[in-house]
Amino acid sequence: MGKFSIVGLKVILAVILAGTFFVQLFMIPMIFIHESPSDGTEKFFQGSFLSYLFLAGLIIETCVYCVWKLATRVKRGTVFDPASLGYVTPIIIAFAVGALATLALGAIFAASTEIAPGVVLLVGGAGLLMIGISIIVLVLRQLLEQAAMTEAQAAELRTELGGVI
């Protein structure tokens, strides 16, 4: 990746982070304060949805932080270091937790007669999509692990060759 790609990525990540913080710190409390459901069932659905939004924000923030750190490692040329794996694993865990939370939200919505079945299907599809993303990132982590091993072996061979010469 070039310098402009890294800068562009970090700008986008900063905007995403700012938007996530705005939703968590201002939008969710405003919805909670100004939207007061009349009965207990509606309160449960609203509380479930707002809790999901807050958790989704935490997941996004975790992923943004880890991608930022990985982009920094790419810029420095140290991405094929085993320490980079420590920034990929939280992304996998975050997407897995997000998938479980999304599927749980879909189950909560399915129990309601007021929520359209299409919405429940969309939420369930989003949960499955997040599982797929988690698996893709897991495969990419394994590729990074192999590349880090290959880089370490190449460095060791360079050292041995330097000693011979």
Automatic annotation (TrEMBL):
Pfam families xref list: DUF2975
Coiled coil: none
Positions of transmembrane segments: 12-32, 52-71, 83-109, 115-140
Record InterPro entries: DUF2975
Keyword field: Membrane, Transmembrane, Transmembrane helix
Origin superkingdom: Bacteria
Name of protein: DUF2975 domain-containing protein
